[in-house]
Hints:
Blueprint: H1 3-15, H2 18-25, H3 29-43, E1 48-51, E2 54-57, H4 59-84, E3 91-97, H5 106-116, E4 120-126, H6 129-137, E5 143-148, E6 158-165, E7 167-171, H7 185-189, E8 192-195, H8 201-212, E9 218-222, H9 229-234, E10 240-243, H10 244-247, E11 254-257, E12 264-270, H11 277-289
Parallel strand pairs: 3-4, 3-5, 8-9
Antiparallel strand pairs: 1-2, 5-12, 6-12, 7-10, 7-11
Helix pairs in contact: 1-2, 1-3, 1-4, 2-3
Amino acid sequence: MELRQLSYAVAVADTGSFTRAAHRCFVVQSALSHQIARLEEELGTRLFERGSRGVRVTAAGAVFLGPAREALAAVERAHDEVVALGSQLRGTLNIGTITPLAAVDLPDLLATYQERHPAVRVTLRTRLVSDLLDQVRDYGCDLVFVDAHAPEPPRGLLARNLAHEDLVVIVAADHPLAGAAEVTPAQLAGGTMVDMPPGSGIRRHNDAAFAAAGVTRKVAFEADAMTLLEPLVARGLGTALVSAASAAGMPTVRSVPVTGVPPRVIQALWKPSGASPAARAFVELLRERTPDVLSEEDGRPCASPTA
């Protein structure tokens, strides 16, 4: 089993295509396919099912990919650790984040980080919270910024709790609740709502708030970007719960305070074991530049999962 075979298998799983995986790995498709076939022959099982609709990871492939990602991450960390012994920190820092991230001035953090470590290459990606958690667990990201359902991190991850964000309801300008002093989940449940998909942190937070209030709401529209909620609400297609910071940048709708919905927690999450020198340097900067809003001691491991 060779490292390039592990790299090719991960690329196929990530891209869902042998062609796109070959492009990502800078090899011709025939060479990549040949190495995957050799790997499957050695393992005695198929890692991928090839079909007209693309490539699907088999059950055996799903079991194989976790350790494969860890092995590749370990090799990269070993390289970075040796390089870090030199005069300048090098390597790659992969950061994942929800969007928008109003509670953290990420560009300012990255500007300071680049000043201190100009040889580190930084990559940014935006995803739903469920995807970001998978990324940080599988070493696809060194650190992620998420909106959390609970103040404690999922099992196996460390957290720095960066902010509490109050939520408000946004409504169309001519909506009956537009002039209200405040609203409750029960009032909102009487009409239709728009929200982010179930894989997002804010959707999970909102669903839990309505469940705690003992009311059932109707989510008629889902959008995978916060910026898409404003035009849906402005056209009267429903109301939406968003952070007060997000609502402040939505001029075409009205925001109304809401009671019975707790603030959400914005966290930075990272894996305590196997962090690269570049990742450790960013965590140090984060601790230096941002407070932990929930405790004096940041980065404590969670005793039980919150998933």
